[in-house]
Amino acid sequence: MDEDEELVELGGPRFPRWVRLGGLLVVAVAVLALIVVRAWPGQGATPLVTVSPSPPAQVVGAWPTAPGSCGARHELAIVSSTPRKEKTGLTMLMGGDRLRAVDFDDNSVTVIDGLRPGEFGDVRTGSTGPLVTTSTCRPGGSRILHVGSGRKAGVAGSLGSLEVLLTGGDGAWVVLSPPDPDQGAGFVRRLDADHWTRLPVGFSPYAASDDQMVGFLEPSQSGPSSRLVLVSATTGRQLADLGQDAQPVATGAGEVLWTTGCNPSSASPCDLHRRRLATGSTATYRLPHPACCGGPGVVSPDGREVAFLLERAAVDSRYEGHPMRPSNLAVLQLASGRLEIVPGIELPPKSSPGLAFSADGRWLAIALDAGPRIRLLAWRSGVQHPYEAKPIRGQVLWAATVATVANGW
Fold first, then answer.
1. pTM for this one?
2. What is the predicted pLDDT for the residue at 1?
3. Rounded Cα distance, 305 and 376, in Å
4. What is the pLDDT of residues 112-128, one digit of tens each?
5. What was the pLDDT predicted at 50?
6. Domain map of the chain by residue range?
7. What is the dihedral of CA 389, 391, 397, 398, to 10 degrees?
8. How many Å apart are CA 212 and CA 375, to the nearest integer?
9. Angle CA(162)–CA(165)–CA(167) in degrees, nearest 5?
10. Are 69 and 120 in contact (CB under 8 A)?
11. Residue of 6, 10, 220, 336 with fewest CB within 10 Å of its CB?
12. pLDDT above 70: percentage of residues in the chain
């Protein structure tokens, strides 16, 4: 008996041909089942995304503009809305040249004292209540205000000219940038602590959630292109590399979302990625058009939805100020991959509307800069046009901001 025959005997007797064919069939079925499981939405594959039709614009002629803050002229969103037809339960804190608490259902507005003359408030959600950072028409430092349940604003800190405030999850962090990002490292500390943590050289964070910061890492001007990365706010260590061809979309509720392959000069499809910060699990969704404008999106408190800007398929001939396309406002259901376009809203390129979900994720609050006014809208799935409250007279500095708060706040 030669060596080959010994190996066959050690492996056991040869099975009949029908048994071997049956085994191959079982293996093929198992492989097919594995492919189906991996292709299911939320398991790392690209689910099919459906888009509701984009409604036509409601104006004719040049793109509308209005005088804004600091001598600027602001381009306006084109909106088709209706008065409220049902209860929303939305109570909001709005930023701008005044801090205002707004009850969307009864159109009541309460001005909250705290801003100094010439200051504008930028509202964001904090773990113990809304936080506000102030700014003026001239660059410089700012103050941090905390708005409590009694609708009173108190000073919670200050920011130097090289400092920014990041909020998300259960905390707020102050980031100190180096005078020369190519030569030194930045630092970060929790708003309620004094200890500073050193950040990687060249890292510029723009958002935070659950003690993780997301931002761009550019080691040097002569080195490789910047990469989107996650960095621990506690240790300063890099936790994950999200890619070189990456642009931020939204961060919050323990999620970070970003795109790859999105070309703002093309209407071609590209990918939206989602990562759970606690587990590191990821999913990918195929977008029909590029996501827009570098991350003004918002994640719902339960982490099930994300609202963001999605470029329109065609350039609007009335807009000649920038080669980028106007945008729709889109809401993506992360579990199913279902994408809805908020009807009746067309946003100019580089627009940054204020966005906030209600606590239960059912309603999306939308604040729009309208020059001498601020427009406030609410939308949920199934509503043909967004509801609009009475416009609020006032101005914003760079963009409208809004935060939803609990009823009776």
1. 0.84
2. 42
3. 20
4. 999 999 999 999 987 77
5. 58
6. 48-405
7. 50
8. 33
9. 160
10. yes
11. 10
12. 79
